[in-house]
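Subgroup meeting minutes
Present: P.N., E.W., G.H.
Scribe: E.W.

1. P.N. recapped why we're keeping a running log of single-chain structure predictions: easier to compare across weeks, and new members can see raw inputs and outputs side by side.
2. G.H. added today's entry (288 aa).
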Amino acid sequence: MKRVRLIARVVALAAVMLVGVGACALDPQGDGSGAGAPAPVGVTEQASGASATPTPDQRTSPASPPTPTPKPSRTATPKPSATPKPSSSGYPGCPQGQHQRAVEAYLARLGGFGTVTVDGQQSAADCKAIKRFQRRYGISPAEGRAGPTTYEVAKRLATTDVRRCHAGSGLTFCVDLTRQTVWAMRDGTVVMGPTVTRTGMAGYATPSGSYRIGGRNLREWSTPYEVWLPYWQQFNGGIGFHETTTYLHNGWIGSHGCVNLLHADAVRLWELGRIGTKVIVFGRRPGT
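Output recorded in log:
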C-alpha cells in the first residue's frame, strides 16, 4: 500500500512540473513573460474599418434620415486671382536673396547665362540665369537664390582682370590668388575663361611666382594625405593643379598649397596642359 501511495505522489509531481514548463516557455510572439502577444499596430484599425477607405458595402443605415443637400449660396463666385507679380520676397517658385541686384549686375557683365534685368527684383528670367550660373560653378543648392556664395563667386569672376597675368607667348596657366580664379592664355589670347579655384589655406599658402608644369598624372596618390588627386599637374614641388576632393566653396578650409578645381575645369586644363607649360601665380589669398 505504501508503495502505491509513493507512485501516485511521483506521478502527481511530474504532472505539476510539466504544466509549469509549458506556462513559462517563451512565446515566440509574446514578450517573454508568458503573456499573450499584443496585436500588431494597425490591425485593429484596419479590421474595424476606422482607418480603411470606405467600400461600397459600407452604406448608411436605412433608419438614418438622409442629409439634406445644402442650397447654393447667393454669395458671388470669387474670380480667379491674377498671376502673382514678382515681389521683394522673390519670384513664385524661386527665392530672392539679399544680393539680388549685385548678382544681376555681375551676371550681366559676365554674360553667357541668359537675360537678366538689373533692378533688384527676382523674375523668371533672372532665376533661370542665376540657376545656370550656380550649376556652372558648383554652387549648392542651385535654387536661383542670390545668396552670399553666389554673390562672392560672381564678384570674383566679374572683377578678374586677365591682363594682370603677363603671359607672353605660348600657353600659360594663370592663377589670381587674391580673387581665387584660374584661366589659360595662349599668345595673349584667353583660351579658357576665368573660373573658380581654392588655393592654400593659412599656414599652407600657395606661393606666387613663375613656374613650369613638371609632372602630370590622371590620378596622383597623395602620400601625406592619403587621397587620390584627379587630373594632377605639378608645377612647384608637391604643389599642382587637381580636381577638388571636397566642396570647393567651403571658405573655412583650403588646400595644402595646391590649386583646387571643379571637375570640368580640371579636365579642360588637363587637355590644354603639357610638360613645360608656363604657370604664373600672383596676388595673395585673403586670410593667408
